[in-house]
Write a structure and sequence with these properties.
Elements: H1 9-13, H2 22-36, H3 39-57, H4 63-89, H5 97-107, H6 109-112, H7 126-138, H8 148-166, H9 171-181
Helix pairs in contact: 2-3, 2-5, 3-4, 4-5
Length: 205
């Protein structure tokens, strides 16, 4: 699941399945509404909002249930939204902000609605983006790591810390234990220290 970053295109050409992030498509219209009070953007936001209304009702529902309810409730909304996008694209000039917002959704429509046919897929990538936001916000502070190697090491440490959090470990406890064990850990068993496999050798003091 991703946005329209060109760097992903080679993966899709190699057979990776693209899933579009509905939040990115919706955001194009939100920006139009926030900056220009566009009535068209307001109409689009209502339709995107209806898709999200369904998702809010699906909290705690298993994958099979999500798939069934999405087909029953979300699919008709998505069809209306698609027709709305096609209709209004014919009415706005090429190159305008509105045309760009509509084109973003139309050009990626199959990827955007792929979640409707798979109950294991989310409607957007917000869960991941919220977790990498601290890294994105801190980029300007990390421009001066000292060297390329230092930057790579900082990235590795930050990845370990975030992975520890995702695996419900206290990062301080995790790093303290790993650094204590690392000098005597055999290379053949180094993967045991990765966050998703780690178990503390001793109780944390």
């Amino acid at each position: 699941m991703c946005d329209d970053y060109a760097g992903y295109k080679a993966l899709f050409a190699d057979g990776v399945t693209e899933v579009g992030c509905m939040a990115h498509a919706r955001r194009k219209f939100h920006d139009l509404w926030a900056n220009h009070k566009s009535e068209l953007a307001g109409e689009a936001l209502k339709l995107y909002g209806e898709l999200y209304d369904v998702e809010r009702d699906l909290q705690g529902v298993d994958a099979d249930g999500r798939h069934r309810i999405r087909q029953m409730r979300s699919r008709p909304i998505a069809d209306v939204l698609h027709q709305w996008l096609i209709l209004h694209r014919q009415k706005v000039p090429d190159g305008s902000a509105t045309a760009k917002a509509i084109d973003y959704s139309l050009n990626r429509w199959l990827a955007l609605v792929r979640y409707l046919d798979d109950g294991t897929l989310p409607i957007d990538n917000n869960w991941v983006e919220n977790r990498i936001r601290p890294v994105a916000l801190g980029r300007s502070n990390w421009l001066f790591a000292g060297s390329l190697r230092a930057g790579q090491r900082a990235a590795a440490v930050m990845s370990l810390i975030q992975s520890a959090k995702l695996n419900d470990h206290d990062p301080y406890r995790y790093l303290k234990d790993v650094l204590a064990r690392l000098p005597t850990q055999p290379n053949s068993r180094i993967e045991e220290l990765l966050p998703h496999r780690w178990a503390p050798a001793v109780a944390a003091s």
